[in-house]
Structures are given as structure tokens and as C-alpha cells.
Amino acid sequence: MLNGKTAIVTGSTSGIGLGIARALGGAGANLMLNGFGDAAQIETLRAGLASEFGVKVAYSGADMSKPDQIRAMVEIAAKELGPVDILVNNAGIQFTAPVDTFPPERWDAVLAINLSSVFHGTQAALPAMRARNWGRIVNVASTHGLVASVEKAAYVAAKHGVLGLTKVVALETATTGVTCNAICPGFVLTPLVQQQIDARAKRDGISVEQAKSDLLSEKQPSGEFATPEQIGAVCVFLCSESAAQIRGIAVPVDGGWLAQ
Ligand code: NAD
């Protein structure tokens, strides 16, 4: 379905981004992977995806907190794989603390990686999409783009910002073949959430399994984690022709979190 398209997925060396990259690769898109990690492991991942799906796979170690590196990543993807058709802004970090003591440098880092990178990536990728009158921008926001939780000031502010930016880009491209939408995952068991589970187990003096189940029962009525594969499938749908008139929306994949 996406044969020959070029897709960048930021933060795709792990978790949800990797699930999305696998789904887009499975649909035939050539991939630019991005994210941090051990160089040898990333190369194994890159080569593995290329042979599993028979697509071209490149890697950029661009730091999403650095606008010039984001722009360079988009240019390199175009050179190595062809003009960028699909941009998935997924890279993100979390930091939890009460607002009273939230470290300002952590605020800046969360805002830079979770929100400003979406702006810089979009700005860099949009001209080529407009020129070919086709493009898909998919922003991985969160249920925290629509509702809040305590101790997540920067994350919640950034994700609300991502949904606002998604709507603006959708309106500014509304008469073109470029669409921009967001996905709002609930809890997905990735390293980002595992950190929160481990912190909770330590804080409450309970087992990791108990902390996992407490975390889910607080927010996610299904009592189950959403999976990177499920989110990847939603992303592929948003990139399909069937979704050409879906513009500026936020799709929850959240086990009922937002229904409460
Ligand atoms: P993760 O920690 O498994 O993966 C994060 C990815 O981003 C990794 O590849 C990491 O290397 C990369 N990354 C981090 N900082 C970066 C930087 N400065 N530059 C480039 N890459 C960077 O996390 P995840 O849970 O897969 O999260 C992915 C996205 O999904 C994030 O935007 C997160 O906010 C969002 N999300 C996650 C959940 C969840 O429950 N896991 C829920 C809602 C939304």
C-alpha cells in the first residue's frame, strides 16, 4: 500500500516508534529510523528491517532537541531514500515531579523533544510534500494531550501543544493532498512506562507486577496495555488513501482511558 514511499519515524529505535516503523515497512515504505541506542544494536535493527520487509532502511542519530539536526535528518532521508512522504513525529521523553519542584532544565528538554521537534520536523518536511501534493504527518501525542495527570507538567503541556499544532498544520494543508493527524496512546509497555512502573514499585514498596496493575487500574479501564503493533496499524491507516479526508484529529488507542 505504501510501496516506494519514504517515511521518517523519529524515536524509532525503541517502543512505539519501532512498532510504527515495522508497520510502515510492512506496508512497503522505505524507512529512516531515528533515535538513540547502542550503535551495533541499531545496525542490526536497521539491517533486520530491511531484509524482513524488502525495503530500504536508513538511520539518523539526529537529536530531536536540536533543530539543525532535525533539518539535516530530513535532507539526508530525501537524498538516501527519496523525498519524504510520511513524517511520524514520535520521539518523546517523560519526567515526573510536582510543578513546585519541577527542574526547569527538564521542562526545557521535554518541551524541546516532545513539542518543538514536531514543529521543526514539520517545517522541514512540508515543502517537498506540498510540491508533490501528497504527504502524511502523524504526530504521536498521548491521552495526556487531552487530559492531565499529576506530576507531568511538562509532558502534559507538550502533548496538549502537539494536538494544537496538529490542528493548525491540518488546516493550513486542508486543500492539499497532505494530511496531519495525531495518535493518542494510553499506557503502552515501553521503556518510557517501565521507568514509571519501577519508580512506583519503589515508592509504594510493592512488586513490579503489582505496580503495573496499579498503574493500569488507575487510568486504563481495559486493564491491558495498548501495544506498539496496534499503534503502528493505526498509523498505517492514517497514511492510507482511505484516510485522505481525516484531517486534524486525535485518535486515542487507550483502553478506554478517555471515555471516563
Ligand atoms: P521509548 O522510550 O521506548 O522510545 C523513545 C524513543 O525516542 C527512543 O527511540 C529514543 O531513543 C528516542 N529519543 C529520546 N530522546 C530523543 C532525542 N532527543 N532525539 C532523538 N530520539 C530520541 O518511549 P515510547 O513509550 O515508545 O514513546 C514514544 C512516544 O510515544 C513518545 O512521544 C511518548 O510520549 C508517546 N507515548 C507513549 C506512551 C506509553 O505509554 N509508552 C503513551 C502515550 C504516548
Quick summary:
By secondary structure, the chain is of the alpha/beta class.
Can you lay out the helices and strands and say which pair or pack?
Layout lengths: L5 E4 L5 H12 L3 E5 L4 H15 L3 E4 L6 H15 L4 E4 L14 H29 L2 E6 L12 H20 L5 E8 L5 H14 L3 H12 L8 H11 L11 E4 L7
Parallel strand pairs: 1-2, 1-4, 2-3, 4-5, 5-6, 6-7
The site of nicotinamide-adenine-dinucleotide has 29 residues, from α1, α4 and α6.
Written account of the structure:
- The protein has 260 residues and is of the alpha/beta class.
- The chain has 2 domains: 6-186 and 227-252, NAD(P)-binding Rossmann-like Domain (Rossmann fold, 3-Layer(aba) Sandwich); 189-225.
- It has 8 helices and 7 strands; from the N terminus they run βαβαβαβαβαβαααβ.
- A 7-stranded parallel sheet has the order 3-2-1-4-5-6-7, with helices on both faces.
- Helix 2 links the parallel strand 2 and strand 3 (57-60).
- It is globular and about 55 Å long.
- The chain starts with 5 loop residues before the first strand and ends in a 7-residue tail after the last strand.
- It binds nicotinamide-adenine-dinucleotide.
- Nicotinamide-adenine-dinucleotide binds next to helix 1, helix 4 and helix 6.
